[in-house]
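Entry 12.
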Amino acid sequence: MKNATVGFRVHSGWSAVVAVCVEKGKPVVLHRERLQLVEKFAYRFRQPYHTGERMEFAEAREFIAGVREKGRELAYRAIHGLQADLEGRGYKLSRGALLLASGRPLPELEKILASHVLIHTADGELFRECLLHASERSGIEVVSIRERELLEQAAKTLRVPQPGLLQRVTELGRPFGSPWTQDEKFATLAAWVAACGFKKAASKTRSGAPA
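Predicted 3D structure (tokens):
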């Protein structure tokens, strides 16, 4: 069975997901989707910390924890389903790459809700944590890559000059058609880097509520 790797580029409430394999030194895209990480794709759930900011503290804690729990379950269903689909096609999905924003740990919930800057950060980090939790539950080893370092790290790991990297991943998406935006391109590149040996392990980010 051939090895496959999945890459995630996360937004509030959803993530670009791309699975690749490397055959004869060249990446091949196996799967592309936009994974919804909230049951109802509305502002209330996509921006849980923004929503919680307008609630009493106890209610906000409960609400955010509920969004996280649902996000974890939706992520697990999708990842587990992707594993099964790829296995049926002769691929084992056991490795992944998660793109990070700043990657800085967040403080406790009270401090997050008191800072609009931290609220923006926490919304994205919550959904990253959902994917990380679901990946670990599925037996997938996830590495983390800071997005601002992706091109530099990719050039180093893949031994491909930076100017040619995005052109390569753009060409990989042509058979899939639209959408093949920067989200899919970066998720592809992250997965390709992880498939070729990048080893920085991902760690769970603090998101202001119990895990």
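Annotation: The CA atoms of residues 138 and 186 lie 23 Å apart. Residues 2-195 form a domain with the Nucleotidyltransferase; domain 5 fold (CATH 3.30.420.10).
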